[in-house]
Backbone:
């Protein structure tokens, strides 16, 4: 499920902090990694005019305040105490110039016409100034998981009964999932087979501080966002460390390479080639309407152009309403939109109820699903990525229904956080007693809907009282407590030093036909970091920035 | 003298149309180049939501209106009649995405904070959608002239008496030139020698339609702008023709390569190396204050970073006021600013009176001139680029004082338009009678001050009546009438088809030490195109866009 692109700059949903339930496997105390890199205080006040300020107060925090803040917070993995402010100013300036020159930009919400067309109302993307330390072992673990999740989604998608049964209670409580299930049912009735299947996924993780476990937050199987901008931040950080690494005591080679956008383009092109007939068919990107599309500089800017440049594959952009009015199903199953045959459909829209304001959009979705075009994702892949399925897969002996390899199953299970449906009375009781250790996740997409802290208790009590079946719309998840580390975050040209927590997303690309798996790869990553002024209760106020990782 | 960066989007000064005086060498009627490229009307309505509109009315012009406009105007060199609007929409979309991803951006005047820092309030640069046809012979001529002008400026700069004498009348009429001359006088008095001399120039031309002559508009010896963005537009147009050339009947190889920004960076780095002692000295870019610096994404973003990336040369940015307060002259002549030795000074500010609001800025300029730092430009180079000197050099037998090579002299003379001082009574009489054939140019810099049409007559009559000596502040120039051709211009995301005229600027880089010329190169080019709704009188309303050339 795609994190809405518009949610990044200020919303918290894209970096949700989940309820923590002590993991049975470990109770070791957190032992921070020894400080590897110390920063010299060499003076480099080369650029004037830059303000290092606070977003909250619009003023420069005093040294005392910073020191106090640091003392009160977790011990950071990399120590930013010693960096000279003049040097930071210079790096910030260079980072902003680099961002402007390399398309690391997003729409500026303060500019009305932003996002109506490319090239208007742009501002640099919110970014971390320097990469965030991340243990190499956990990085490797996350990378290894990508092809296993790819395969799991594919296997689950083939089990229509499992999807329908697992989501039966959700169906009664969530209208959106219900409509998706209706389309899925129709496909089952007509025995529709997806012989060529393309998945472009992103699995999101947080590193739990106390257990030192890499735990999955969610798996996105539709509209996995930021594959483009994430790569650019990696390039930016590598460039900055090439220039300033010596002074900072950091080595650019410790930032893993990130070619997600190229690999996604490759997967789309390979799928297009696999469709094969006719060769002049296009890749169709399903986009949001102009009104809703606040800004989407990511996939459509950073991946799709490669289809043309590198693979000579033509692409078109259509809204769901346009597909409804211009689309038709030819007798051989070909989807034609505006007179053009469509080989591959990439959904950059359609993951949230707001994308379906009328029956017209649902009609378009059904039309596409009935066609022979390769859908990224198919309705089955879309459903396989729901939170409810994530929770079902975490039940004992469920993974075994889909995968044969015991090692793979063990690897998956290791990254599963505690996940429960609201039929588990023991867990509901525990969550009412200790709501701070849980997060309630509604099936609804688009972010910002998770329930934390005291609200968990209130909502559970209300649902118990009402007994309306609405509880089918939620799952309960262990809350994860990642470690906070001191970070420089830049938004709107202002650099702000604060404690922040991070979420790592790893992209995966999967393509297969009737006989063979053509592609099953891990494809780069996305690091997002957000201010956490408190690591204790609720979701901290703050904003998420794009980041990269520095292996430790 | 640099065209103010802020003048591009809407001002007319950067594409001044000069008064025409029939050239004695030719009276041939204009014979348009035969149409080489016809555009097929292949249907490609691939992208939705783009508006092809009119800037003046904010509405889509009807086909009738377009046809009518075309019929009334000059016959275009390349015929845009046949291009399908759907194809244009798709190319526009791609052009906007490409611009956003490659730093072809400027500050958005509608966004208040734009230009305060890099990365804020950006919008795609105003651009022509496709390159503008330009005769290969004239292109080669302009390129050949670059090193000759480089040498001429250097020779003129060495003749302090010529500069002082030529500008004596200007001095009494123009306070800014007077201050520059004062500094120049002081240098003459102290026998200050510039042993290492660096020039980064741009010579601007228009192609006169009736005479088919390439005629010089002006020579910029300080702050020659757009070396960065100009290169990017060339890259954009080549990319678009690589993608759509077949459909358009255009070949990307006919767009000359443009590496001005890399060559300027190379020249700055070579100058830095030539300074040699100490090796840790920096390149200092003199910048405008934050208040005045509406946006300067060009040299400081597109050239200066290469100094670091490619040559490992450190650069700093300082305003004139900062240089005054932080700068000092060491006993050996070294300029130190903020404790750092300066090897090379690049002036991105200081070319206009507005950059000198107090004595502090003049004091900084003097301090720099007294130092051993390599100044780009020195006060002599700066003065050698004034309009008055341009006019003096056009007088008979003046070029011969500075250059030996007769071929070079002939080449320069061929590109000189008619230029006169206001002591030439015959010309003043002619200009009062036929003001539409002349343009009056004040010495004042910063653009927008040229006088056209009826105002020429009025101003000349007033000056004659007053006899105040103010006439020393002006020169008269032949007005040049370039051919208009049908062009697609894009600003603020809107594509507008109109008749437009173009100005070609060719960059030159020159570096020498006491013994040898180290660099004397032509360095890429800048094409600027502006709407000309009428090719007859005055300056047409319109805006200038960045463009490239397509050799015919």
Residues:
């Amino acid at each position: 499920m795609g994190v809405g692109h518009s949610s990044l700059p200020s919303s918290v949903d894209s970096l949700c902090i989940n309820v923590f339930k002590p993991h049975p496997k470990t109770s070791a105390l957190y032992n921070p990694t020894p400080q590897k890199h110390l920063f010299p205080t060499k003076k480099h006040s080369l650029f004037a005019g830059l303000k290092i300020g606070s977003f909250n107060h619009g003023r420069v925090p005093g040294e005392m305040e910073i020191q106090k803040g640091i003392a009160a917070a977790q011990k950071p993995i990399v120590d930013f105490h010693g960096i000279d402010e003049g040097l930071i100013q210079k790096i910030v300036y260079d980072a902003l110039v680099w961002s402007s020159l390399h398309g690391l930009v997003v729409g500026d919400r303060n500019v009305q016409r932003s996002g109506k067309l490319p090239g208007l109302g742009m501002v640099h993307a919110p970014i971390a100034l320097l990469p965030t330390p991340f243990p190499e072992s956990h990085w490797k673990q996350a990378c290894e998981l990508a092809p296993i999740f790819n395969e799991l989604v594919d296997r689950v998608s083939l089990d229509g009964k499992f999807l329908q049964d697992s989501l039966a209670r959700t169906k009664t409580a969530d209208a959106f999932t219900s409509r998706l299930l209706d389309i899925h049912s129709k496909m089952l009735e007509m025995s529709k087979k997806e012989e060529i299947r393309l998945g472009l996924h992103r699995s999101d993780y947080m590193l739990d501080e106390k257990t030192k476990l890499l735990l999955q937050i969610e798996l996105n199987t539709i509209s996995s966002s930021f594959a483009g901008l994430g790569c650019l931040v990696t390039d930016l950080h590598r460039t900055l460390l090439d220039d300033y690494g010596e002074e900072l005591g950091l080595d650019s080679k410790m930032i893993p390479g990130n070619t997600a956008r190229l690999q996604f383009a490759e997967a789309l092109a390979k799928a297009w080639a696999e469709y094969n007939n006719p060769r002049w068919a296009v890749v169709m990107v399903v986009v949001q309407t102009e009104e809703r599309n606040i800004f989407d500089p990511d996939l459509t800017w950073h991946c799709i152009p490669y289809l043309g440049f590198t693979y000579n594959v033509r692409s078109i952009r259509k809204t769901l309403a346009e597909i409804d009015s211009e689309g038709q199903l030819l007798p051989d199953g070909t989807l034609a939109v505006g007179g053009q045959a469509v080989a591959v459909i990439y959904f950059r829209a359609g993951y949230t109820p707001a994308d379906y304001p009328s029956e017209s959009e649902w009609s378009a979705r059904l039309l596409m699903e009935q066609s022979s075009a390769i859908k990224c994702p198919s309705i089955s892949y879309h459903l396989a990525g729901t939170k409810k399925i994530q929770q079902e897969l975490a039940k004992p002996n469920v993974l075994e229904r889909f995968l044969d390899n015991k090692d793979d199953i063990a690897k998956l299970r290791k990254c599963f956080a505690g996940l429960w449906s609201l039929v588990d009375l023991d867990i509901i009781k525990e969550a009412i007693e200790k709501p701070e250790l849980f997060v309630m996740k509604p099936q609804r997409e688009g972010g910002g809907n998770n329930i934390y802290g005291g609200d968990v208790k209130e909502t559970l009590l209300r649902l118990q009282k009402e007994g309306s079946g609405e509880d089918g719309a939620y799952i309960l998840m262990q809350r994860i407590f990642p470690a906070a580390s001191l970070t420089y975050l830049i938004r709107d040209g202002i650099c702000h030093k604060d404690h922040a927590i991070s979420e790592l997303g790893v992209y995966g690309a999967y393509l297969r036909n009737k006989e063979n798996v053509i592609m099953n790869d891990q494809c780069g990553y996305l690091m997002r970091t957000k201010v956490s002024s408190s690591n204790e209760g609720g979701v901290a106020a703050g904003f998420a920035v794009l980041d990269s990782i520095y292996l430790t």
